[in-house]
Amino acid sequence: MSAVVQLTDIHKIYDSGEVQVHAVRGISLALQQGEFMAIMGASGSGKSTLMNTLGCLDRPTRGTYLLDRVDVGQLDRNQLADLRNEKLGFVFQGFNLLARTTALENVELPMLYGRNRGTTAQLRDRALHCLNIVGLADRADYFPSQLSGGQQQRVAIARALVNEPQVLLADEPTGNLDSKTSVEVMGVFQQLNDQGITIVMVTHELDIARYCRRNLIMRDGRVVSDLVVSDRLYSPTEMQRILETEAKAKLTGID
Amino acid sequence: MRIDSTVIVSLRALRRNTMRSILTALGIIIGVGAVIAMVSIGNGAKSTVEAQIASLGRNVLLVFSGSFSHGGAHSGAFGAGTLTPDDAEAIGRELPNVAAVSPEVRSGAQVLANGLNWSTSVFGESADYLHIRQWPLSAGAMFTDQDTKAVGKVAIIGQTIVKQLFPDDDPIGQTLRIRNQPFRIIGVLQAKGLSVQGSDQDDVVIIPYTSAMKRVTRQTMLRSINVQASTPDTIDDVQADITALLRQRHRTTEQTDDFTVRNQEEIAAAATATSRTLTLLLAAIAGVSLVVGGIGIMNIMLVSVTERTREIGIRMAVGAHGSDVMLQFLIEAVILSSMGGILGILLGIGSSQLISKWNNWPVLVSSTSVAVAFVFSAAVGVFFGFYPARKAAQLDPIEALRYE
Fold it and tell me: What is the ipTM metric for this complex?
């Protein structure tokens, strides 16, 4: 089976006039179908740059990136946009939902830019299906401002899923969430991954990274560690533990 | 290109900011409304002027005593009388293509009848005058050549005179005293309204020119001669013939002419030129407000692009091309401006109707001006929406997503 993502000696150099910033210095990486990887590292380690490259938002200065056997380095701006639309799903730290736009319309958004759009009814059915996957079908007509942070992030995940991408990319998806909601969102990711969806996420929280299958640690634009997670956390058991702790806290609170 | 999706996206974006959309379109609404109203008023004025010119009569030439061509020692038109009844008679007798001639004298006079009095204009004319002016009677009959020869004391009166002196009874057969001379009223003119110069054409008493000269003005000279050419094509020939004939009779040259011949087209051209200038001026002022409205749209679209930088980033991240984003903002601008155009057209038609009602001005809403205003407002949207839309399309998705 060939890799979904194949990076070979990727370099990224930002040229801001006098200073050249070498953000990524030779990364080679292969991701198989169904992998669930966390990229970790301190700020400035190049993980955001790597993520932008993986997300086809940016082209590497050097090296080749094959996404689903397509050489990303050869594509122009519009072809990159089509690639993002068809093969990638994005989840951001700040959710990045369109304000004053219903959850359903937010989820429909990537389909509007798709090549085969389908009828309005098909769009709606598909968006509702994805909202159902993340457990928000009953909130379809809510605006983001009427949803909690966890719910907004789940709408964002539904939006990322709607075009059935090859890879789901999440940039600090739990960064703006409390620990309980983070576990909830990680639960959604684990479920999707169990169904065979490839997920790459950036995080700086070690315990969040333990929900993944593989952890990649970067420093100074290089990979310093690439390990399979041995003591993996599972969302349902963690949620159980959190609820028990909360219950205990309430009991002691009443005394 | 996915135009239908983009239209949906644009409509959703506009709906999210309903209030701002309306305020943005307001500039165009007022601009287009002003253009429509101004052009309608201008067209109305033009049609009035054209109607007034038509009321001068058909194929009419006017011969004035005095000369327009130079000042100095010479007096201008209607100056010292130089035209005589013999000149008028010669024009009628000797020139071809002349259908009718009416020598004219005018005098202001206080007229009395029915125990009432009224200050009006007394015109001395020939029996052909009403035919030349295309001015029908509403009652009675015009005096005849017989009356003219006999220096008859008969009069035709306008509607204003009827209103002032005979408010209750039939004026036909009654006696009108002009400068203490009794004239018998034999006809009443139909209403004609205002002249090109704005005077009341119905405030008039018409008597035979011979009677006017002997009994009212006591002058031997004419003020002017009304000449009717037989067909429109012959007007220029007749004008040249009259000039030649009068030069011969008065022994003058082009430099020393003591008369002026004007044809109706010249008078009409001067008057329509004035009203056309007026229309252009009004439309130009209104056009400026349309441009200001367009700049308003550009301003709001630029603010909107900046404010929605992150939205643009999201759209690009999920697969929007630069052209999709550009089209979205362009369509938003065009929807704003063309909706503004439609509302502006309604506003313009409504306000021009109101103006016509309050001021009693004639207005004429032409379908051309409506179509032009609409197309122009949509074009304003494209023109002023282009720069902001292009700015949005050129954003870098990474930068845009990071934008706070």
Answer: 0.90
